[in-house]
Amino acid sequence: MELIYGHPKSLKPIQTKYCPGCGHGVIHRLICEVIDELGVQDRSVIMNPVGCSIWADLYFDFDSVQVPHGRTPAGATAVKRMLPDHMVICYQGDGDLAAIGTAEIIHAANRGEKFTGIFVNNAIYGMTGGQMAPTTLVGQKATTAPYGRDPIEAGMGYPIRVCELLATLGGTKYLARGSVDSPANIRKTRQYIKKAFEAQLRGEGFGMVEILSPCPTNWQMKPGEAVDWVKSDMIPFYPLGEIKNSLEEAAK
Amino acid sequence: MELIYGHPKSLKPIQTKYCPGCGHGVIHRLICEVIDELGVQDRSVIMNPVGCSIWADLYFDFDSVQVPHGRTPAGATAVKRMLPDHMVICYQGDGDLAAIGTAEIIHAANRGEKFTGIFVNNAIYGMTGGQMAPTTLVGQKATTAPYGRDPIEAGMGYPIRVCELLATLGGTKYLARGSVDSPANIRKTRQYIKKAFEAQLRGEGFGMVEILSPCPTNWQMKPGEAVDWVKSDMIPFYPLGEIKNSLEEAAK
Amino acid sequence: MTEKTFMAGFGGQGVISLGMLWVYCAMKEGLEVTFFPFYGAEKRGGIARASVIVSDREIASPLVTSPDSCIVMNMDSLPICEEVAKQGGVMIINSSLVKNGTMRADVKAIEVACNDIAEKIGDPKIANMVMMGALSKVTGAVTLGKLEAVLKTFFPESKHKFIPLNMAAIEAGRAAV
Amino acid sequence: MTEKTFMAGFGGQGVISLGMLWVYCAMKEGLEVTFFPFYGAEKRGGIARASVIVSDREIASPLVTSPDSCIVMNMDSLPICEEVAKQGGVMIINSSLVKNGTMRADVKAIEVACNDIAEKIGDPKIANMVMMGALSKVTGAVTLGKLEAVLKTFFPESKHKFIPLNMAAIEAGRAAV
Amino acid sequence: MADEKRLMKGNEAIAEAAIRAGCKAYFGYPITPQNELTAYMAKNMLDKKRIFIQAESEVAAINMVYGAAATGARTMTSSSSPGMSLKQEGISYACGADLPCVLVNVARSGPGLGGISPGQGDYFQSTRGGGHGDYYHIVLAPKSVQEAADLTYEAFDLADKWRMPAMILADGLIGQMMEGVVLPSARDPASLPKKAWAAGHRAGTSREANHITSCWLVPEELEQNNIKRYRRYDEVKRAEVRFEEVNTEKAELIFVAYGTSSRVCLGAVEMAKKLGIELGLFRPISLWPFPDKRLAELAAKGKKFLTVEMSMGQMVEDVRLAVNGKAEVLFYGRCGGVIPSEEEVLAEARRILGK
Amino acid sequence: MADEKRLMKGNEAIAEAAIRAGCKAYFGYPITPQNELTAYMAKNMLDKKRIFIQAESEVAAINMVYGAAATGARTMTSSSSPGMSLKQEGISYACGADLPCVLVNVARSGPGLGGISPGQGDYFQSTRGGGHGDYYHIVLAPKSVQEAADLTYEAFDLADKWRMPAMILADGLIGQMMEGVVLPSARDPASLPKKAWAAGHRAGTSREANHITSCWLVPEELEQNNIKRYRRYDEVKRAEVRFEEVNTEKAELIFVAYGTSSRVCLGAVEMAKKLGIELGLFRPISLWPFPDKRLAELAAKGKKFLTVEMSMGQMVEDVRLAVNGKAEVLFYGRCGGVIPSEEEVLAEARRILGK
Amino acid sequence: MANKGKPVIDRERCKGCHLCVRSCPTKVFDVDETPNSWGYYPALPARAEACIACGNCYLVCPDVAATVYKL
Amino acid sequence: MANKGKPVIDRERCKGCHLCVRSCPTKVFDVDETPNSWGYYPALPARAEACIACGNCYLVCPDVAATVYKL
Ligand SMILES: Cc1ncc(C[n+]2csc(CCOP(=O)(O)OP(=O)(O)O)c2C)c(N)n1
Ligand SMILES: Cc1ncc(C[n+]2csc(CCOP(=O)(O)OP(=O)(O)O)c2C)c(N)n1
Ligand code: SF4
Ligand code: SF4
Ligand code: SF4
Ligand code: SF4
Ligand code: SF4
Ligand code: SF4
Ligand SMILES: [Mg+2]
Ligand SMILES: [Mg+2]
Prior knowledge:
The complex is a heterooctamer, with 2 copies of chain A, 2 copies of chain C, 2 copies of chain E and 2 copies of chain G.
Chain A: E1 2-5, H1 23-38, E2 44-48, H2 56-59, E3 63-66, H3 72-82, E4 87-93, H4 94-100, H5 102-110, E5 116-121, H6 162-167, E6 174-179, H7 183-201, E7 207-212, H8 216-219, H9 223-237, E8 241-245, H10 248-251
Parallel strand pairs in A: 2-3, 2-4, 4-5, 5-7, 6-7
Antiparallel strand pairs in A: 6-8
Chain C: E1 2-10, H1 15-28, E2 32-39, E3 47-55, E4 69-72, H2 77-84, E5 90-94, E6 108-112, H3 114-121, H4 127-139, H5 147-154, H6 163-175
Parallel strand pairs in C: 1-4, 4-5, 5-6
Antiparallel strand pairs in C: 1-3, 2-3
Helix pairs in contact in C: 1-4, 1-5, 3-4, 3-6, 4-6
Chain E: E1 6-9, H1 10-20, E2 25-28, H2 35-47, E3 51-54, H3 58-70, E4 75-79, H4 81-86, H5 88-96, E5 101-109, E6 115-118, H6 123-128, E7 138-140, H7 145-162, E8 165-171, H8 172-176, E9 178-181, E10 211-212, H9 219-239, E11 243-246, E12 253-256, H10 259-274, E13 279-284, E14 286-288, H11 292-300, E15 304-309, H12 315-323, E16 329-333, H13 342-353
Parallel strand pairs in E: 2-3, 2-4, 4-5, 5-8, 7-8, 12-13, 12-15, 15-16
Antiparallel strand pairs in E: 1-9, 5-6, 7-14, 11-13
Helix pairs in contact in E: 1-2, 1-7, 3-5, 10-13, 11-12
The complex binds thiamine diphosphate (2 copies), iron/sulfur cluster (SF4) (6 copies) and magnesium ion (2 copies).
One magnesium ion is lined by residues 93-95, 122, 124-126, 133 of chain B.
């Protein structure tokens, strides 16, 4: 009897604090699977954001640096520049990346910093209890959008497609959007992560994988409903796939 | 003898502190010409940025609000929301808008705030003496890019096309790029400004006019050379014209 | 009269509503009240705790560090309550989930099988109400005389039909001690 | 010995280089030096000013508020210098641009037609060097003995050919007072 | 007509009091432990057709407040410790431009990300200007939900009266706890006096253009402007000092504490009384202006002071400055989100008194 | 082998000293009056193949410093007052995560945009933690270009030794003026001792993963962590106090001043001597830890103190706290970018002494 | 010619989200009626013999509570 | 059938950038040899009679120092 799907080595075997059905857990595992596969556990550094994944340093069994809310790409820029032969992963939520950290992600991407962004888009502020995020869909309810996100009357703005925004910048080389709503999409997401990590090891410029991820707690849904909602509501607005791929590999 | 090209009423008749040949002067005049034409001098508020135009409150004869560096769109958001029937102009340099104020411009634009941005792109930090701006061209020298902007080796990033970046956002309705390098382009720029101001008066969402503008002092050129450089080097990278126009008018 | 109560239970057990309703009623009875809920470091699915004080005078610290009464809704809450319980204080234990009582011999332990009683009344979710009835009876601090009116403002219209059930749970709680 | 000099002139007149070369030479002669340039509120095209101190002891405030010597390079600078000039101090005036001397009777005014002299030597841009020669002679604070060496490090190679011209200007300045 | 007593969280009471004070525009960014405040504003400001914006960051939020204040509107932002740090530049600007506004800090424990439990470690930042340059602004510290509502309401008036920001410095406990509260009566923003210095509404008037700025590039002008502002500060110090005293006359030892820790000390005073020990409590309500005169008077009477803070010792410096060596000033602090108990504070007092 | 004396601007001397101290990464954002520092770094760090990044903002810059420091590298940022305000959250984080780094503030006059002339109005912000939570860090105030270079060089060592940020608090005059300077000798960053706690370079070792964080969600753990840090602060207070005294023994009145204003006072002391009046100067070099013990000793000798600042009065509070009522502490300040003259400071001293 | 596999659920790590339950192509899982010590009702491989070792349960599990062996 | 115009230069406001000089289609301007009181050499409408009132000089002038009348 051979273990074919087992606990990745670089993920610590402890119970996480994430809610049942939370996408962060799947994404953590995918990162570790790829890290293990590439054999870089002992030269990986993850930047933990302020958000539900603030606790990620409990789970990832490699070095970590926890920076202020939204400044994850600024921190990652420096870490990668100081440790150019390390795998540097910049893990961010949608509040962290697309609200308070807008300037930092845009400029790190534009500079073509050679780390990899993992962008967990759950269309909500998870950690703080369900406020509207820049990626919250129109009409979606949040504690700060009690009648649903309303771009017109209340001037709450439109959901931002981050990959598409970053694709306009000269420094970005690889931008893909995956989802953890189904086994098939999880497999694809893993491939995107792997491509991005490999590109980083080759020293190619900025790559990021955006991942649509359920937050059952703040969406006030059961885990099953939440993954269904990712499929029914998020994916239509946030198309999956490689939004930009100008890696050398692809060029060949 | 009839005065056909004379000093606009809403521009104070005093000597500015700008350097000889500086584009800010032309742009100030254009704004005031349109304000006068629309007859809104006494209900206009201009947001002055931190930059060479910090002194703009000496020149514009209408109300002004001077905010911290880069936060001009955040300030303008509030001013316009509190004074919805006023003409609110958010004047910004490229350091102000595209570096420190990246998050503020993106989110104000994305919220579709109903003020008008005037974005003076002179590809340099004027006020502080010639540092690299996000819009500095590749190879262009600056005090902080002593060997020219180098996106690859030094990782200084690529020049950012702001209109094109903002065009991806749901809240933007009118984005145009003009230049003050020649009488013809100055006339066109004036038209863009007028369109944007009129749209604001109709209550339509976010509009911005980017204006390519010479900074002879920090480019270390004579005024004439500087306008030539706008034409020869800037315009090819920053194409002029209406980058996005989804105004109701246009829709008709 | 000042009654300081420390309440603890599992996330979904309604400890927070219990505390809120308790102080709401107390306020309606003319008392000063404070209610301070707090969670452990674990945000998700941890233990919900509350410091609850009702008094006929101005309340000093809202933090209950030496409770006159403790409410223990589940097993995990027991050690926490045992740590803070005041000598000679009351500890009301939900014996449906906490089987072996407390080891603290210096407190007055009272067992109420809240879940069982609630289930019998018809809804296991109102175990917290059973507990509140018991607390009212045991401490006498809050009569709960205004509870029915309070529940009307507390629940949305659509849920007013559950009020009799809640009131029944209170009575059952009272009766159980 | 401490010589505090206040220098003022129009933006392009080389007041800043004058001050820098002055203190550079002084440093090479073993003196303590401070040089603090400042501009008015107008960043563009205003008056350039500098506080310049050379001394054989530690220098206290680098700000010259009571100058032993003033250098007036153009007309607009005159009132500024008149305001600060110390009673009994020296004021060296560029009489090429400042026609009517100073109204301060309590200072020792010395006129040097710097621009005219510079033009005669061959380059109106070295009026500042003429002034420095005069300043050296009048104050005796800095001999400028190391100037030639200093200029070699100050100018890029390509401009070394102008050094003799500069030295000539110094001599002419000396000779003019 | 006074409202009836309601049971509310401190965060919600602050929000509702702001609305009643005529707050026309709220700008905030989510952060624990003040999220209920933002959520309350989201719902209720929108319902009232006033302005609510969840800003893209705290930096944006404070600058929106700056913009709204520049138009003369009553406006507010709220946050917690790390978010307040991000607002420091904007606060310095608002002070430099003499803009009235209300700032709420429901403080947590630091430094850095720290924890989300209550803290009083932002005292220096709040009272000394965490931002750059010479400035102060009003800082009020409520001890209860009732006072949180009352002081917030008043903060709007004080801000307008003195043309400066007024801050409510609460902590996570004040924000999260529920108490009974009678809310102040509602004011229509339209009924508030107009501000002649504000931007906008020039049409139909004959006034010159108004310029809101903190920029003065001629040093002497900037200095004069600062001096003028400090004269105003002197007036504020004379007019707006607020504090509460409990048993200070009889006390051998007086606790000095504000907000949550003052209630802990009050409990210790009461417990002591039962033991026949006379303790007192001096509670600054206005942290700036600090009630230094009254403390100096008490010091002159030969009292001992024990400052109790949920920090490693910050307000204690103001107590020392007030007392100026005339009395012994001791310190007891807990930090990191730990709230001291009445028992431990009493024990410390007894240790000091040897009783 | 000591370098020969060079003529340099303060800003450039700081930059060169940092490079010589082994600074591997510099992150900054343009602001007057420190632009020459950033420009110098741009050229010279790139020439040396070290890291120079013009960040998108001061907020990004301080967080890049945080990142670089987390890897154990010597790193620095510089700015001026408004930019420093924006860095406060990041500084609080760096202190909370015990990260060594060097921060330079070439201060201007505030508040708000204020002016670009020299100022000392950021004393509170620098010494009291303008950011949130309980923390301090080393603050050194140079009076000359030479000292700017020396203290910067030393700041890197102190930061590493104590695992905390060390700040150079200069002002626009120190940054802009030129003086002769002998630079400290250059160190190869590769020769510096490795930091076992840092992130990275785990391969080939058998260590556990290193986590750099300021987050402690269990209050008691956060408290313990803070207390441990404060114990370190106590050691710093014992070991790293620096100050200079001039004529304090004979003086009837002692100026207390740092940086630029201390040189003005030195001038006044010299001028007084010629008039037969004995004045002294006490110059704190380390603003944190503040040299309070020595001041208390001088106070015990019955000296009067006149604190002179280019602000409305900030360090004077530390002087009062040190002296604790044992001596009279007076204040003379100019602000807004005005530098006081030796004459006016002397006049003030004479007015006080009635001489 | 389907593979044969064996799913293993770590009851204590399982948070009862039941994403595995819905994504198993061969309906291997039921929901356990006994909660674990956290109060969650774990997935129960009631029909393990139907397992085709597709890995879906492992893939969707946010808590790495489901692992799969190949028989 | 060109218009006829008259350009007026405000010597004191002019900063001598000479953008007007280069953009005048009929070469109306020379550079004045006498500086103004700021030290700038203003534009001088040496051949004003050639002006066709096109407005270019006004349009490019950053200092509103050039104004144009229609004759
Ligand atoms: C400066 C600052 N502002 C706000 C916060 C509060 N905060 C913590 S997490 C968070 C947002 C979390 O949302 P997201 O980034 O989408 O992550 P998620 O929890 O959804 O994974 C916020 C606003 C903070 N810690 N610091
Ligand atoms: C927070 C802050 N950072 C930096 C500065 C310094 N500063 C003043 S203007 C400016 C940039 C000016 O460049 P730009 O926005 O392009 O305007 P320009 O002068 O070119 O018109 C900077 C960085 C400041 N005042 N405040
Ligand atoms: S709140 Fe949402 S994002 Fe956070 S752990 Fe729970 S489900 Fe995951
Ligand atoms: S520095 Fe450049 S932008 Fe600024 S006034 Fe001069 S020319 Fe204009
Ligand atoms: S997916 Fe994982 S956590 Fe969810 S029920 Fe299945 S085994 Fe349990
Ligand atoms: S491996 Fe596939 S078939 Fe087997 S239990 Fe898991 S989901 Fe079902
Ligand atoms: S364009 Fe204007 S400022 Fe320039 S030279 Fe002509 S008139 Fe003078
Ligand atoms: S209006 Fe036209 S033709 Fe006349 S002077 Fe100006 S540029 Fe020349
Ligand atoms: Mg999120
Ligand atoms: Mg610019």
